[in-house]
Amino acid sequence: LDSLSAGDTLIVRNGVYRGGLIASFNGTAEKPILIRGESLDAVIDSSRNGYDAIRLDHCSHVTVDRLTLRRANRAGLCIINCNHITVTGCRMANNGKWGILTGWVDDFRAEGNECYGAKDEHGIYHSNSGDRFVIRGNYLHDNAANGIHLNGDPELPGDGVMNYGVVENNIICRNGGSGGAGINMTHVHDVLVRNNLIWNNYAGGFTVYQDDTAPEHSSQRVVITGNTVWFKANDRNVVNIAPTSSKVVVAGNILSTSSNHATLEVNSDHLSTILSDWNIHWNADTTALVSIKERSQKLSSWVQTTGNDKHSKIANPLFTRPDSGDFNLAAGSPALDSGVPRAM
């Protein structure tokens, strides 16, 4: 690692290598640095420094591909004070706190990774004011808290907001045993969350909120669309829009939950900026599909009060075999051809 410079490729042969590595190097847009495992049998194991299996610190234009990083005390892969970092096709297994952790990382991309077994917190934790991020096509399962957590961290240096992100096509299941949503968004602006599958999580589906009270740190302009959420049993509502959040769109989703929870929870103080429509809502208790300011109500009351969800349906989406993770729609499903029209 210490010998790498712009344009170099490091191939990690199959085998088990002791972790706890810290690297600082810089590629360029024209000459990136690539660290690639021969296969996922190239394993970085544990963390002799007591922290992470690998830490990239003050790096730029680096791709980490096809490595297994496991059993670190803290993160499998930690990325701090970096830019233009890509993580693809890796496996983060049974790490102490997080699968992937970032802090102050702009232009971050995580694609096609598997993160599971984080003992204390999240599969992927993108934090500390990191802008222009893409988290796509990852399989995040059996982590203690969130599958994905986005957190601008205003109490730390930086502007305290995560700007301009896409979170799409991820499969997120069996997370949240100690609490936390499939996708948690704290202090985010201009984020598109689409086409994710969240199933059998133990807590919530999506949350949009902030931890402090500064208006500039509130979560704003978040679009949640084309997602499928299915709970056999859960401890929170499916979509939770917290009091300070504004300009949130919830459209074209399948939102299915257990009988004692709502598919849509809106506690926003900016209710007129919340838009919701063309969704499939399903709950055995149809009298409590929506929760507004912590008061449950029928979907029809929500429609009448706000004008939202006029084109939405209350219906069992009829997945093929949801208990085994098959969320193809069965013949006759009310969700077929029921998404947001191409032209409104």
Percentage of residues in strands: over 45%
Q: What is the number of E strands? A: 35
Number of helices: 1
Rg measurement, Å: 20 Å
Unreliable segments (pLDDT under 50, ≥5 consecutive)? none
Question: What is the rounded distance between the termini?
Answer: 53 Å
Shape: globular
Structural class determined from secondary elements: mainly beta
* Integer average pLDDT: 95
Helix content: under 10%
How is the biggest beta sheet arranged?
21 strands, mixed
Give an overview of the whole structure.
- By secondary structure, the chain is mainly β.
- 2% of the residues lie in helices and 45% in strands.
- The strands form 3 sheets. It has a 21-stranded mixed β-sheet that branches. Strands 2-5-8-10-12-15-18-21-24-27-30-33 form a 12-stranded parallel β-sheet, with no helix packed on it.
- A hairpin with a 4-residue loop joins strand 34 (319-321) and strand 35.
- The longest helix is centred in the last third of the chain and has 8 residues, at 299-306.
- The chain is globular and about 65 Å long.
- The relative contact order is 0.07.
List the SSEs and their pairings.
Elements: E1 9-12, E2 15-18, E3 21-23, E4 33-37, E5 42-45, E6 54-57, E7 60-65, E8 68-70, E9 75-88, E10 91-93, E11 98-111, E12 114-116, E13 124-127, E14 133-136, E15 139-141, E16 148-151, E17 162-168, E18 171-173, E19 183-186, E20 188-194, E21 197-199, E22 206-209, E23 220-225, E24 228-230, E25 239-241, E26 246-251, E27 254-256, E28 264-266, E29 275-277, E30 280-282, E31 290-292, E32 295-297, H1 299-306, E33 313-314, E34 319-321, E35 326-329
Parallel strand pairs: 1-4, 2-5, 3-6, 4-7, 5-8, 6-9, 7-9, 8-10, 9-11, 10-12, 11-13, 11-14, 12-15, 13-16, 14-17, 15-18, 16-19, 17-20, 18-21, 19-22, 20-23, 21-24, 22-25, 23-26, 24-27, 25-28, 26-29, 27-30, 28-31, 30-33
Antiparallel strand pairs: 31-32, 34-35
